[in-house]
Write a structure and sequence with these properties.
single chain; 453 residues; alpha/beta; Rossmann fold; UDP-N-acetylmuramoyl-L-alanine:D-glutamate ligase; 19 strands; 36% helix; elongated
């Protein structure tokens, strides 16, 4: 996993370092110079403009400038507080004006013509905590950051402005980081192989989903659970009748509109999903609250879509009665319906707050997906892109996570692994025209790709 720290945490890590700040600056400057030479495809005779400020970020830039001169690079240094309106022609611009803690407007000088930009730590003007833009930063071709990523590298619009983000080790101790970006090796390590003596009930999922006109959500969830490794999937649609379009492999067990089930039967299932396409009738809402709040339902429970809407302002009280683990998978609007803080201001803080308040795992969907546990740990999946911005993809995600829960993956890791595999499946599909059903068929390839990676 790749560590992520906030700007304030990074400042504390810097202050705790056993080496003097001058040593750390030289290490950072060396890393910047190496990346500059890489982008230039060499050094001697090339022209580089270094824009630097007065702080440590600027000192990193000045150190890099000195090293580049030793390699025969023609370097022009420009003070960020006195920069011209347009930078002189060059082969590379190094943006070392301001670092991750800047929270005021910064208007970067314009480029003379299309020129690669190497940002030091983060493009100047991007908030390292939230990814928000203050002023008019230069869009970087590459960003070299030190010791750990910052939230601003992962959150839009900062994420898009950072370009290719590279992490440089300068000897700082970031072992105390509570936020980490998930990698393929992590997911591979979390997902257990199916035992040779396995049978279908070892990884069974019960999906309570769907309603009149909304059977598609239930089909996507249940099919995704099968493709992600569930050995058996039961689908129960409140008040649902015959459903010939349901996936062939799924076992349909009808329930009434009050969402009444045999609680003793839940013990056979490794995980349950409640919510996709359920609708919001008063009868269903009451039934969902009664089911979720029943302490006898001890199977891991994932709540999504209309299940989250059913909880709404009653979520804290209903969830407090549960003994089993719970995963909530809201998008931004659903997070607000649950009473969470506005995620536009700080997505990390928002998902942490809701996980702490409800005592469960919360996954906040988005270009970067954030998963928090009640202790404040956060896992981030950065795979996936705008191809997932289409109806039904969230239902697929619910099925994937439920399958991982049923396979015995702990809820925190199951949610993060589900987001990662979900994003990988999207990346295997076409950039235009991808629909949620395509993701289901791509899931086995995405899981196989984990082994190759």
């Amino acid at each position: 996993m790749i560590p992520v720290v906030t700007p304030d945490e990074m400042a504390a890590i810097d202050a705790a370092a056993p080496e003097p700040v001058e040593v750390l600056i030289e290490r950072a400057g060396s890393a910047v110079a190496r990346h500059a030479v890489d982008l230039l495809g060499g050094g001697y005779g090339r022209r580089v403009v270094v824009v630097h400020g007065k702080g440590n970020n600027g000192a990193d830039g000045r150190s890099a400038a000195r090293r580049l001169r030793h390699r025969g690079v023609r370097v022009v240094e420009i003070d960020a507080t006195n920069a011209p309106g347009v930078l002189p022609p060059c082969d590379l611009v190094i943006d070392a004006a301001y670092g991750t803690g800047l929270q005021r407007d910064y208007v970067a000088a314009r480029l003379h013509d299309p020129t690669p930009v190497l940002a030091v730590d983060i493009p100047s003007g991007v908030d390292g905590r939230t990814g928000e833009v203050h002023g008019r930063p230069l869009a970087a071709t590459r960003t070299v950051t030190f010791a750990a990523l910052k939230p601003g590298h992962l959150l839009e619009p900062g994420r898009s402005l950072c370009g290719d983000v590279r992490l440089a080790d300068i000897g700082l101790d970031v072992s105390g980081a509570s936020i980490h970006v998930v990698e393929a090796a992590d997911v591979r390590g979390w997902l257990p192989r199916r035992p040779v003596d396995s049978h279908k009930w070892r990884s069974a999922v019960w999906a309570i989903a769907g309603s009149a006109g909304m059977t598609g959500a239930a089909h996507l969830t249940s099919a995704a659970a099968m493709r992600a490794g569930a050995g058996y999937v039961r689908l129960s649609t409140p008040g649902g009748g015959d459903d010939p379009a349901a996936p062939t492999e799924v076992v349909r067990v009808p329930i009434d509109r009050s969402v009444t089930i045999d609680i003793a039967d839940t013990r056979r299932f490794g995980a349950m999903v409640v919510g996709p396409g359920l609708g919001r009738s008063p009868e269903v809402v009451d039934g969902v609250r009664r089911l979720v709040g029943d302490p006898k339902v001890e199977s891991p429970l994932l709540i999504d879509g209309d299940g989250l809407s059913a909880l709404a302002d009653s979520a804290a009280g209903v969830l407090s009665a549960r003994h089993g683990s719970t995963v909530l998978t809201p998008h931004e609007g659903e997070l607000l319906v649950l009473g969470g803080p506005d995620p536009h201001h700080d997505r990390v803080a928002a998902v942490r707050e809701l996980a702490r308040r409800f005592g469960c795992i919360v996954l906040l969907k988005g270009p970067s997906t954030f998963v928090a546990d009640p202790d404040g740990r956060v896992l981030v999946s950065t795979v996936g892109d705008q191809r997932l911005a289409t109806a039904g993809t969230g239902d697929v995600l619910s099925g994937v996570i439920a399958a991982f829960l049923a396979r015995g993956v702990p809820p925190f890791e199951a949610a993060a692994a589900g987001a990662y595999v979900h994003g990988c499946a999207a990346a295997l599909g076409p950039f235009e025209g991808l629909v949620a059903g395509d993701l289901v068929s791509l899931l086995p390839r995405a899981l196989a790709r984990l082994e190759d990676d």
